[in-house]
Fold these 2 entries.
Entry 1:
Amino acid sequence: MKAAKRLSLPAEQEAVTALPRARAGGLDGALRIALPIIVLGVGLAVWELVVRTKNIPPYVLPSPSLILQTFVNDWALLSRSLLVTLITTFEGFLLAAAGGVGLAVLFNQSRLVEYSLYPYAVILQVTPIVAVAPLLLIYLPQRAAVLACAWIVAFFPVLANTTLGLNSVDRNLADLFALYHASRAQMLWRLKLPSALPYILGGLRIAGGLSLIGAVVAEIAAGSAGAGSGLAYRIAESGYRLNIPRMFAALLLLSLAGIVIFYVLSLINYLALRRWHESALQAER
Amino acid sequence: MSSASASSTPLVALRGVSKTFPTGTHALAGLDLEVRAGEFLALLGPSGCGKSTALRIIAGLSEPTEGAVEWAATATSAGNENRIGFVFQEPTLMPWANVFNNVLLPLNLHGAPASQAAGRVDAVLGRVGLQQFGRAYPRELSGGMRMRVSIARALVTEPELLLMDEPFAALDEITRFKLNDDLLQMWQALRTTVVFVTHSVFESVYLSNRVVVMAARPGRVLTELAIDAPYPREQNFRTSSEYVAFCRQASAALAEAMAEGGAP
């Protein structure tokens, strides 16, 4: 209702509405946090109620309380698996960051390399990773295959964003560097890469979530058990054993991991840009 | 100091310079322009008359299609490494670097030793009145202050020739007048040569020894005016009858340039 009213105001009144909007900020902020929690609470309550009143067996649908209990009871097992998946994700992410930025810089320095390799980067991106994972598992040791999956999924947004950033250099600044006879290396390190930083960080924020997805897909495709089994493997394994509560608990952990990755990267993004880039300044106004 | 300080030896000269862009636009045709050592030269003209292009050619940022740029041989420097400072229309600062590092950039690119460079940056920031702002980021400064940083950066290499491309066009009048005065003071203290592109008659007359009026389509020199008023020029010069007379002459020349170049 409130939002609709705001939208209907003409643009000229922006300045006038700014004040009441700022005043409503406190209430707005509280609602922003409170509403999703209320929705979660209601959803969980209904879920619990339905499972209990209808006597649904846990192997069909476990109740939230049972999932929580499993979460606590299986914590030792789940946390070990979480660590395996997180390490894969982290390694895949680092490789994607290095590969994406590295390739973009290479493309930026040499047209020929760009023309030769860019189509293959696109092909890697558009081919569904679920279909590629089994092949990788044939040719690579399992650990390497899982890592390769995480990398393939995550590197493209870094590559695309970095390329965009390197090409978005202020032309006058480029002229200034030319005026002082900057070398190619100086152009790259002092002008192009700093200009591209906001874009690179944007790419990395996407890559963080994607490398988790890549790791999960590869673990599920890998399937076979092992001492170092990740969280996704736990989900698949629990599925075979009809241990549905554990499936949910593992899934919950995966979601939490994804959320933490996203916010950590957002925080890095904010800390790196807050002094100078428009995207990080909104909060101050 | 008077206008006599401008010697008659050209520091740099454009000889029959033409510039045709790949799009087919004739930005300049047979432009002859001498920049005398020590003078404050204003290039005045309607938009599209190629004054910015001429400035870029002097700076070496653009190659003439025909003609040549001749530099006076001086004992002090080989090549034009340290000879030119350039101030763009926008402040053109690196947003990710603070004021100190922005001004340090030209010295840094030339590999100047850090110990010596820091002192020079501090000195030039003092000259533009920003010694307190070394650690500030460009976005934390006003438009006028950003332009001061840009001027400090252009001056930090102690260039023989300072090229300015409508540097104050985007500023409000109060800030512009203040920067005009400060620029004149710096010019007199540093004894550098300035080529100042502007489309403001009042600014060109206030600042310069000599106003070169250019016409558009194709860009060329139409006429030039010597502004024989002594320096230092201050606020009272703006209201003097002498100033008004020069402005009238410059306006007439500009009107002629507009008529010659066709409607913009």
Entry 2:
Amino acid sequence: MRIVIAGAGEVGTHLAKMLSNEQHDIVIIDPEESRLKPIDSSLDVMTCLGSATSVNLLKDTLGKKTDLFIAVAHLEDTNITAAILAKRLGAVKTIARIDNREYLEHTTREFFKSMGIDSLIYPELIAAKEVMGLLHETGTTEFMEFSGGMLSLYVQKLEENAPVVNKKLRDVTREHKNTNYRAVAIKRDEETIIPRGDEVFMEGDLVYVVSTREGIQEMMKFSGKENFIAKRIMILGGSRIGKRVAQSLQKECSVKMIEIDADKCEELADELENTLIIHGDGRDANLLLQEGIAQKDVFVAVTGNSETNILACLLANKLGVKKTIAEVENVEYINLAENSGIDTIINKKLSAASRIFRHTTNPNVTQVKCMTGTDAEVLEYRVPEGSKIVKGKLRDINFPKGSIVGGGTRDGIPFIATGDTIIKPNDKVVVFTLPYALEKMSKFFL
Amino acid sequence: MLNGKIIGRVLGILLILEGICMLTIIPVSLYYAEGDFLPVVISTFITLAVGVLMSQLFRDHNSTIGKREGYLIVTGSWLIFSLFGSLPFTIGNAIPSYTDAFFETISGFTTTGASILTDPESMSHGLLYWRSMTQWLGGMGIIVLSLAILPILKIGSMQLFSAEVPGPTPDKLHPKIRETAKRLWLIYLGFTLTEALLLKLGGMSFFDAICHSFTTMATGGYSTKTASIAAFNTPYIHYVITVFMVIAGTNFSLAYFGLHGRFRKIFTNEEFLFYISLLLAFIIGVTAVLYFSQGHPLEESFRNAAFQVVSIVTTTGYATSDYCSWGPFLILVIFILMFTGGSAGSTGGGIKMVRLLLLAKNSRQELSRLIHPNAVIPVRLNHKVVPQNMLYNVLAFIVFYFLITGISAMIISAMGYDLASSFSSVAATLGNIGPGLGEVGPTMNYAHFPDFGKWFLSFLMLLGRLELFTVLVLLTRWFYKN
């Protein structure tokens, strides 16, 4: 697949990195040489200096056939223009990043489609939705729903008091005879492991569990955590994400928001009727204490500055906040932040990339999620007739190491996969995979 | 710190590749049956065995090729190719001294074409074939070849590619390095076969046609004949070779665009225009001198002038006539041409056209900056502004180039060589040309150098082939410090 990415910003660079590891031909366009240089020397992609709205340059880079054009430059206007031009110049599919929610409304989408933009993407909105999802599933670090919520992937951090710590996976399954959830992967230190029977759970492990609705309560117990209802929320930073979260929660919960910029505070106070806006610096511990951080259920740090977010969350953790969520945009910091005790890291680059990534994989993929803090991916497939995956029991079909089928739904009924499971055509299955196995694994669904 | 395992693994795999190339000598040896069969088989076996051993020994590497590993792998691969590539010559005692065999081989791989053989015709056909083959492999580059055909070098390929092809204007033909490398090699192969066919039609034997097209397209210059191309005294052959030398000295990306019908890209490329005009100017000048002041017939003057100018500028190093007998003025002209080199992205060595062009442009801008001290006058290439750091890189390259030439010439003259011989032997090896002037002129060879001189010149060839920086950086302290 030939993919042209306009804009070598954070999202663009991340996409290029992710996609170039697979069999795609990537061209990335940016007007700033300083942004292209590091890409050129580290990734196997073609970089192209210039404006993404230049017709000549687009003609050159699109070449004979471009399957996907992704406009993720900084400015919305650039993206829209570039995507329209690219479509007219022959790109098969176009995606543009926007930052206006209005554009996402149903009628507007049709309108954009007629102009030549097939798909719109709004990273901040996706990240905000992720935060809101986590506020409902407060016992978990990261989660994602499949098949309309019948099956979910939970990421559980094992605390000291978790009953499974220091036990072998095999023994745990023997003790709890159940068919409602299954651990598909463990992230320990920097490494992601697909566990076998003799793998021992350790404190601090992040365990990726696929579970049906019935299994959630029991699964939570197994990691020593519990869902609680978030009532008091403090948001640090009046960024787009912060604003979205406040907007949708201010009616049911008590929301406080801290913002450093005075003018912005005025603006926010105007827009967010039921939220208490506080003007101040989130790195100031006294301010946080004064505003009663110790009594909060959830602390969400979404300023544009990753360091501020991490530090503030660490402080909140120490002061007894039950759950902390930090936006960390520097990918290098994610592991560090996770290990230092912050419950959940969100990263709008990864969220946006997940969405776009779906367009590049085979048409049977119905959902994709790139996990934060590990380079593993979770994909949901609709199983086509005659594919290799339906050939027999999962343990017999030589499914690649590094990938694992977690579960699926058949005729609307969720199931958890084991070695004995036989997948049938038209099932929807959830697969957890490490990047090196992705290519081999996806052949099972062709 | 350096990732030694991946270096060992990659070098091992490359050795296997060399061994496979050596296997192609076997049919030639068998066909001509000149007693070189056993040495060839033994060398192939050793090369393959060491390659397999190394690649198995360093199997569990963690596969990261950083900048440092990239430089070490590239330099190491050229050295190791020369070390093992010299086995066929030395095992059967075809070249008795190992120093000589190594010199001959590295001169092959670096496409220099400086030889220690007084009479190549006395060598067996199998070895002559291998000698031409080394140049052909080295022409487009060992790493580029392995990137094209070995799927194993997936990670870090960018590092390797840019360490072997360090020219200032990288042209990727395809988003993926591997595909770019494939296309380059296919074009290279295509031109080689075309030339071989044309030479065959001109009356060369099949063997000579293949060997000469190998060494022409690589701008190498090894001939199977002692008298070089002068042994084939038909104008047709001379013209064919001249044309293909010009092609070999052109950026191969342009050939790719040409094959895709994008001729505008070729005729608006400033480096190409500069290269062609420089060739034409010198050919006309040299023809005039030969015709008017030395009384050679017009066609012959033109043919020899064209052949010799192209041969030196593209750093091939073939000879149809002894330019050392052309009088002091033309000898000096030839000497100066030794510093030009082919285009970036070609198989030619030397300073390279694009660097000279940028140097000239920058110098002209400096003059106009004297008159308009506050003016912003960027240097442009193909209508695009050249970034400042690229200009610094070009200037540093040229300064290094002349510095190395000067110091090396002193070292050579300390061995008792005269001014012309010491300067030209350095220029001819550093520029990957082959023959120089005086005692290393086109009718002479490098056999008379002492062993130390041969090793030293071998080093210069490698330095020149990898465009200085890739090798020089290995000699700095920063490379080994964390």
